[in-house]
Amino acid sequence: MYAASREASSRAREALSAALAATSHIAATTGSELFAVVAILDDQRSLRVALADKSVSSSARAELAERVFGGKISAATLAVLTTAVAQDWSRAKDLVDTLELLGREALLRAATDRGRIDAVEDELFRLGRIVEDNPDLEQALADRGKPAQAKNALLERLLAGKVEDITLQLAEQAVGRSHGDAGAIFDRLSELAASLRKQLVAHVRAATELTQQQREHLAASLQRIYDKPVTVHVQVDPTLLAGVVVRVGDDVIDGSAIGRLQRLRQSLG
């Protein structure tokens, strides 16, 4: 985002925080309603452009949002929306993308309020691994020619009753709106959940399943390195032969046997 949109996004997030702080138990409703607004704006280009038109006064844009959405969404969600559209955005897309992000954050806040944020984060990570290991599923979820309803129906068949309802809602919205790598989408959602808990995420590939003690030891070691709590997600990868590969953001720590062999091969090159 350009500077204007970054500032606008910050103001919109402040409005969301204020709305959720003012009234308890509305986070899930607010998240769902923001997703509904995003779907409408995606479908109606003229409305999307009008709500982000900087040549029109901020009050006029807020009034337009009230006319269109008033009575259809809660007062809390409307307050977030009118604050967002009253800001100056570099692009209409930035407005819609921010509303989507705020919807995700509201749902994750709801998971936190229910004491289920750890489960949601872990389920999103594991969903990413399932998609990554199943090319046919990944292709089906990323198919640009397939309508969002069909993708959501597929996720519903796979996940209903097996994951938290918030996990399913986040997954369906993300896949329905995106045409990219589904595994990467779920990873970003998992990382967002961790960031809202002020934690880093370590993606660990291990040659064999790690014990709980090994996971805790690894998490403690990474916390000392990064001076911040770290959530460890483990994926078993027998091709590593032994050891682990750890990725935290752009940092990669390769302690696997295959990695050592590759480095030895290069040194002998």
UniProtKB/TrEMBL annotation:
The keyword Electron transport does not apply. GO terms for molecular function: proton-transporting ATP synthase activity, rotational mechanism. One of its GO terms (cellular component) is plasma membrane. Its main location: membrane. InterPro entries: ATP_synth_OSCP/delta_N_sf (IPR026015), ATPase_OSCP/d_CS (IPR020781), ATPase_OSCP/dsu (IPR000711). Keywords: ATP synthesis, Cell membrane, CF(1), Hydrogen ion transport, Ion transport, Membrane, Transport. Coiled coil: none annotated. It is a peripheral membrane protein. PROSITE patterns: ATPASE_DELTA. The keyword Transport applies. It is found in: Cell membrane; Membrane. Belongs to the ATPase delta chain family. This protein is part of the stalk that links CF(0) to CF(1). It either transmits conformational changes from CF(0) to CF(1) or is implicated in proton conduction. F(1)F(0) ATP synthase produces ATP from ADP in the presence of a proton or sodium gradient. F-type ATPases consist of two structural domains, F(1) containing the extramembraneous catalytic core and F(0) containing the membrane proton channel, linked together by a central stalk and a peripheral stalk. During catalysis, ATP synthesis in the catalytic domain of F(1) is coupled via a rotary mechanism of the central stalk subunits to proton translocation. This is ATP synthase subunit delta. It comes from Nocardia terpenica. The lineage of its organism: Bacteria, Bacillati, Actinomycetota, Actinomycetes, Mycobacteriales. The gene is atpH.
